[in-house]
Amino acid sequence: MSENSLYTVVEGGSITTPKGFISGGLHCGLKKTERNDLGAILCEVPATAAAVFTTNVFQAAPLKVTRESLANGTLQAVIVNSGNANACTGDQGEADAYEMRAAAARYLGVNELDVAVASTGVIGELLKMDCVRSGIAGLPEKLDGGAAGAEEFSQAILTTDLVKKESCVKLTVGGAEVVIAGAAKGSGMIHPNMATMLGFMTTDAVIDAEDLLSLLRSATNSTFNMITVDGDTSTNDMLVTMASGLAGNEKLTRLHPDWEAFAAAFTHVCRSLAMAIARDGEGATKLIEVQVNGAVHDEGAAAIAKTVVGSSLVKSAIFGADANWGRIIAAVGRAGVPVSPEQVDIKLGDIEVLRSSRPVAFDEEKALHYLQKSDTVLITVTLSDGSGSATAWGCDLTYDYVRINAAYRT
């Protein structure tokens, strides 16, 4: 049975499609523009919850607060702001994150320890708490269980993103329909060692926190941890998942006959969001997908794939539509993974450019056309060292990336 036959993509679905969830957002004044900068997700019942966080040693204040809230394995609400990361802000930043949690709990009518807090934006600046306070007070009337509320939330979490990132699927678990959905933001400072900059997933499945966390970690490793835009891991990376349990299915465990289908559907949502982040990399014009096959093991294949897709020279060559396979094989060779140097094949799309580590005569015009016209460039690296395989995603490196980041604070 193919993975796609295990679940169905819900076109137009959102984080409010699973039973029990509403969301919304508004502009409270943290951003200079009128774009939304404060949002919330609310579940009608305390939801089973799990999260993964950045491995950056400098961790923003909201991460400490959210870890504390997750200690009992449940959440009922998430409050998130954009425009300010509340990172490297000392005791005052921590106090502000706790105040956000307390205010959200009060206005949303939930237990304070069932609220997660997330922030994204400029590092090292204190939050404008007068704006945050008034914004949280106004959020309840903005929350909605339909498309409008999901749209307002998705817009509220964006920073340099050009587009929102959403994904939704449904499947049958023991005769009950279960929905899984997600929304994420991320465009720059993307080289996660856990997840994207900010991601939020909802489902109405019945599942324990331990199994949900195990699945979240597994799915993250093959999706969010396989993307890169610029090689930088944020201080604020957070991926939070909430399961309302309102689908009424028999409890999902790893021994459940429908676990494989649920895991595949869950991973699909993660993969869709991760690819959308890579495609929307700051200044990007193309998504780059690197598939590595024949490595000693999957971990080695993953290391090679991420090294290739993260290479500034490879990224620049793709932007310039230059079929420079030398940059690709050089990245393979420096990934720190054992490789048989005489047995490497490389393709750009379906164009073979290297066979057994030797150049292949190929149609340069065809390669130029492929690289210029394709919005997704596929690089396939085939080794002869084992059965390990992995896929990574990234984007090209353009002039606009430098322009955007040269003036990020101004």
TrEMBL record:
Which keywords fit this entry according to its UniProt record?
Acyltransferase, Amino-acid biosynthesis, Arginine biosynthesis, Autocatalytic cleavage, Cytoplasm, Multifunctional enzyme, Transferase
Please give the InterPro entries that the UniProt record associates with this protein.
Arg_biosynth_ArgJ (IPR002813), ArgJ-like_dom_sf (IPR016117), ArgJ_beta_C (IPR042195)
Active-site residues? 196 (nucleophile)
Q: At which residues is there a site annotated Cleavage?
A: 195-196
Please tell me where substrate binds in this chain.
159, 185, 196, 282, 405, 410
Q: What is its EC number?
A: 2.3.1.35, 2.3.1.1
User: A single Gene Ontology molecular function, please?
Assistant: L-glutamate N-acetyltransferase activity, acting on acetyl-L-ornithine as donor
Q: Which family does it belong to?
A: Belongs to the ArgJ family.
Protein name (record): Arginine biosynthesis bifunctional protein ArgJ
